[in-house]
Design brief:
The structure is a homodimer. By secondary structure, the first copy, chain A, is of the alpha+beta class. A three-stranded antiparallel sheet of chain A has the order 2-1-3. The radius of gyration of chain A is 16 Å and the shape is elongated. The mean pLDDT of chain A is 97. At the A-B interface, helix 1, strand 2 and helix 2 of A face helix 1, strand 2 and helix 2 of B. Strand 2 of chain A pairs antiparallel with strand 2 of chain B. Chains A, B: InterPro entries: PurS (IPR003850), PurS-like_sf (IPR036604). Chains A, B: Its main location: cytoplasm. Chains A, B: It is an enzyme of class 6 (ligase). Chains A, B: GO terms for molecular function: phosphoribosylformylglycinamidine synthase activity. Chains A, B: Part of the FGAM synthase complex composed of 1 PurL, 1 PurQ and 2 PurS subunits.
Chain lengths: 80, 80
């Protein structure tokens, strides 16, 4: 079973890395970018056969390791 | 206009960060994870009004800054 976990910063949390990318894009002459926020994505393979079990394991993984829930949101998608 | 760019390692490229996460999940007692690969996600706001123009600008941004196309794939999604 394959899954994708996306971890993004919560609204209101400053993202200096995103700001730096925004500045770099502008320096490169790429116009029209008004905001960038960077997050992380994890492509995970699991041996579970039940999607519910896989999702529960991944939520546990997010809460305990993959995301800092004070400043980050996470989203779990079961792909196949 | 909002868009999401996802940058992931190509198949066959080693991902020590993913391996470390896999080991950490196992140490935490989260069972059933057989593979982890980490990538990056960029949530981008653009002032373009045409989706085609936004997509072209983002592909340019990926080729020149956001992705290392030797080892990484990228995917551009226009969200709204």
């Amino acid at each position: 079973m394959k899954a994708r976990v996306t971890v993004t910063l919560k609204n209101g949390v400053l993202d200096p890395q995103g700001k730096a990318i925004e500045g770099a894009l502008s320096s490169l002459g790429i116009e029209g970018v008004t905001g960038v926020r960077q997050g992380k994505v994890f492509d995970i393979e699991l041996s579970h056969t039940q999607p519910e079990a896989a999702e529960a394991a991944l939520k546990d993984a997010c809460e305990r390791l993959l995301a800092n829930t004070v400043i980050e949101n996470y989203r779990v998608e079961i792909l196949s």
